[in-house]
Design goal:
The structure is a homohexamer of 135-residue chains. Chain A contains seven helices and no strands. Chain A has 135 residues and is mainly alpha-helical. The first copy, chain A, has two domains: 61 residues, AhpD-like; 63 residues, AhpD-like, CATH 1.20.1290.10. In chain A, helix 2 packs parallel to helix 4. The interface between A and B is large, with 66 and 66 residues.
Chain lengths: 135, 135, 135, 135, 135, 135
């Protein structure tokens, strides 16, 4: 259960600012499926438009990091932040972009190892080596 | 300042179990530099050996994810966990493995965007779409 | 499912120390509803009393921050900590204290933006400007 | 020490896209001071522009939540996320917008109490009461 | 719902590397029950073996910290990280190792208090006293 | 640098409500040392008194968990929350209560392992086994 309503397609039909974003999500993704995140954000059409615009720039546009790697980075952040929905949605997105089961297994291992060494470092309060400084 | 001693090379010289790991770190990385994380862990030689063995398997061995991507995933987790030392050390490692400034800029942007949507999802408590389920 | 029992009103009836707190919760809130959080804490009557006493001091007493703002701050912390129950309960409380949908939308936006810039700052490890120091 | 360079005013002088944002930050804030966050983001002019544009919409524009409350919410998120820089910069911003020492003391108390009850709830895994559901 | 399959005993029967670990889990714990965590990890037999080997060394082997205290420390970390599954599984494990309801109540109180003072410290950005330094 | 003043003994001399708490801290701990946390909280005498009273109940009073174990649990939470000050102060407290270097090494290992399995579980979104439910 959400703390806001999740707008249905019927409800969106009457809010042109939301309808325009949903249409663009569908066109960009070449799929009729609009997931719950956008249906929650749709309560605030200005935010909806802003967040979708950012996602297109950061995640969809051509860039120096390939689309699958972007999704794996997203899963990593979402896991460390404990966002269940985000882990689910971006794992599905990564698979849709070709992530193999072997890659998923490795991704999970890297995230786990980073979780471990992050905790070890923090428990020991290790100071940053001067060699890591950016001059 | 750490909550444990950081062992110097002179101190390690007298602890064969630690010396062996430090030698392997140097041989594996083809560098004389052993960073503070290992010097803190060296207080517990059994842990030191276990953690280094894992790091070799997960981060160094040939695998389905390339070495630079692995480092970027590590940075992502470390950032979300707020581990300053880890962000520093793995950003240095990623640069050593060829991360360009353009890639770093994009990595930072993806991490930032994931941080934002993680918070939006959690604030709205969005339920997982059935489409994201693994059958 | 909880990791402790959630005490029912019938069970509480036989534990005077718990009954007294539940009575005060009902009187203070002018409502018969006692939510699950207190039913879990009731396994430890001393803690129950201590936590409720604090909540009255910090959240209910007259003060320099108005009641609705307090709830919005609580939602912000609970979201960043990923506490689903807390986000639900304090969003309901904020609405009961008059939070409009427009305010909720903005609150969600601020939380999301803070999540983003928090991650950007940590990924870049930005040092604190001397201008922010308290003299 | 940052993991990226912090661009000085002299360096920014030669990057028109960055210069334009810095000029707008100065004009909007009616202050010559541009804090380190923007100097780090300036390595990626497109991100710099995008993040500043968002901040103006969410934090500066007229809205249903007053400017001081916005800053207190920002401090709450930044504290829970453990972002030292962000706690410093937004506490300074809140004071600049009129936060009294009494309000700061209460804000700290609310954040602390939320941190406590968030942990209590998670340790006990309290299930969400149906009464908190949005219909 | 998981983001990976949870392997059943029938499926594991055909994967000797997984079967061997499951057999060892059962023998070590003197119980036929293999919980879902291992069934998810079983998708990556190498990880499964590595993680189980670590758990045996850290949690099962004789050591300077008694088994119940270890489980309480595990619950503390899992709570602060918001890992619902982990809080459930290690609370069950702690009870199986003799944790009384009084001890559980106190554990929850300590975790809650630590959550509170962690947030207070971070909100006030308290600097480390030199007295806490390890010489 | 803190976001509030840290009150010196000279300043506290003129604030009876704070002086009384500082005196009790010194008497309880049998030490003249009052660490920075209390000097920051002293800006808000009511909070100072409330937090110290709680700490005495939860951490100092006789109870079902021994004092050293309490400190180790505190370190575990503080590490997972990334509270550097808290890790430092409670590691010092644990050593003062007799924590050996072997115990500290194990504590760090348990925290690290919990960090790893917490991340593995969250990345795989493992559902809670019915066996872990409290009836």
């Amino acid at each position: 259960m959400a703390t806001t309503k999740l707008l249905s397609d019927a409800e969106v039909e009457n809010i042109p600012a939301v309808k325009a974003v949903f249409d663009d999500i569908r066109a960009t993704r070449k799929s009729d499926f609009v997931n719950n995140f956008w249906r929650g954000l749709a309560n605030d059409p200005v935010s909806l438009k802003r967040i979708w615009a950012q996602l297109k720039v950061v995640m969809v546009a051509d860039s120096a990091i390939d689309p699958l790697t972007k999704e794996m980075i997203y899963i990593a952040v979402s896991t460390a932040n404990g966002c269940s929905y985000c882990v689910h949605s971006h794992t599905a997105a990564a698979r849709a972009k070709g992530m193999t089961e072997a890659q998923h297994g490795e991704l999970v291992s890297i995230i786990g190892l980073a979780g471990q060494t992050n905790h070890l470092v923090t428990a020991m309060q290790i100071p940053v080596d001067p060699q890591f400084e950016v001059k």
